[in-house]
Design goal:
Oligomer: single chain
Strand order of the largest sheet: 2-1-5-4-3-6-7
Distance between the termini: 26 Å
Number of helices: 5
Helix content: 25-40%
Mean pLDDT: 92
Shape: globular
Largest sheet: 7 strands, mixed
Number of strands: 7
Radius of gyration: 14 Å
Structural class: alpha/beta
Low-confidence stretches: none
Length: 155
């Protein structure tokens, strides 16, 4: 698979929100700008939630949507339902659950297709409605990185 970069489409994945709504990423995006908060493991939940909270003023659903997208190497159907059930216990707010899209992926194909080389901090990717990448930043929330993401949203 080709590496992701501005101008290329993010790889397609059939996924499910924590409210059990089926979604095809990026085909089902409806906002003009989509902010994808990719995380790589349970220890990234707090840093990813910090990004989500900081981006709350930018989110309006039609122009800008923010998705919390934990990337989890595909463990099989039984373990998937256990993991998703556990996450529903963490995220009790229904509106937030609509934006948490659990991405069970084949790590050896999806990560290179998304151009993931560093799994030590959240990856924030901004796309257009078609899933074409506008740009990305990686790291824990900071004023500088938040300003960079806001510039990408307005691009």
């Amino acid at each position: 698979p080709s590496h992701a970069c501005p101008g290329s489409a993010i790889p397609e994945v059939k996924a499910e929100t924590l409210n059990k709504a089926k979604i095809v990423v990026p085909k089902d995006f409806t906002a003009e700008r989509n902010v994808l908060l990719f995380s790589f493991g349970r220890d990234m939940q707090a840093p990813t939630d910090a990004w989500d909270a900081a981006l709350a003023p930018d989110r309006d659903g039609t122009a800008v949507q923010v998705y919390n997208m934990p990337l989890i190497p595909n463990p099989g159907a039984i373990v998937r339902s256990f993991i998703s059930g556990g996450m529903r216990g963490i995220y009790e707010d229904k509106a937030l659950r609509d934006r948490v899209v659990v991405m069970y992926v084949e790590e050896k194909t999806y990560f290179p297709a998304l151009d993931v080389t560093d799994k030590s901090a959240p990856l924030v990717v901004v796309t257009d409605m078609a899933g074409i990448e506008v740009g990305r930043v990686q790291g824990n929330l900071s004023e500088a990185l938040l300003a960079d993401v806001r510039k990408l949203i307005r691009k």
